[in-house]
Every structure is written in C-alpha cells, then in structure tokens.
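User: I'm writing a short methods note and want a consistent example. For Histidine triad protein, I'll paste the sequence; you return only the structure tokens, no commentary, since I'll be parsing the reply automatically.
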Amino acid sequence: MENCIFCKIINQEIPSYKIFEDEKVYAFLDISQATKGHTLVVPKQHVTDIFEYDEDLAADVFARIPKIARALEQAFPEMEGLNILNNNKELAYQSVFHSHVHLVPRYSKKDDFSIHFGNHTDQRTPEEMQAIADKIKEQVK
Ligand code: AMP
Ligand code: ZN
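Assistant:
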C-alpha cells in the first residue's frame, strides 16, 4: 500500500535491520528497541489490524513467531522472558497502521517495559460476567 512505512520496508524502499523473511512475513528490529532485540513480525500482505486477518493469514503469521522467539532466546541467553504484543487501533497504542506483532525480550523486572492489567476481580457479579461472556459468545462466527 502506498505511503505505508512497513510496506516500504518490506519492499526494501527504506532500510531496516532484517531478522527473517519468507514469502509470508518480514521480521526486523523495532527502531525504538524497548529492550535489546525488540522485534516486529509483519505480514507481507498489507492489513491494517487484527480485524482484517482471515484464518490463513493469522496462521501464516503466528506459525512463524515461535522460531523467531527461539532465535531471540538463543541470541541472548541472558533473556529471561518474552512479551508478545499486538496493538490494534490508536486507543490501544497502534501507531503504524500495517499490522505487526511485537516480540519484546525481557531481561529483568527493571527493564524499560511494563504491562499493567488492572485487577478488578471484585467489581463484577457472576451474573454480569455471564452476561458479558454470552454477549461475546453469540458473535463468534
Ligand atoms: P505500534 O505502536 O504497536 O503501532 O508499533 C509501531 C512500532 O513501529 C513502534 O514501536 C516504532 O518504534 C516502530 N517503527 C516505526 N517506524 C519504524 C521503522 N522505520 N523501522 C523500525 N521500526 C519502526
Ligand atoms: Zn503496509
């Protein structure tokens, strides 16, 4: 797609620190390196976000992630964990609108990365929880 920075990277129109490429995905270092080895895995097909994936594309992308994760682990034996993240839409911190998966190696509790899930276990009744689950369930197609 025209004017898409990740399409341009895939097409070698702008440089990147490539890690892996095949017919389906392109993986390269995130320029901002939240931690050492922070990698983006990008489908070669331009899709904006997760809502545009079909099952085949999702399988193509996610099938390749474990071997890239293992490559990070082998490259950096001091790595103690890995966060895998996919941001969708601006509110959820998406800033490049060509879908991508972040692999963020973790080295210590004090590295420059955190995710905060609020704990609200006591704020919804079992009936509310069931209603939420039912509402979603009937939309899974
Ligand atoms: P997100 O905020 O989830 O959309 O992530 C977009 C990521 O793309 C950010 O972490 C940026 O640092 C990264 N990024 C933007 N431009 C480039 C580029 N030219 N090369 C590598 N990474 C980039
Ligand atoms: Zn694109």
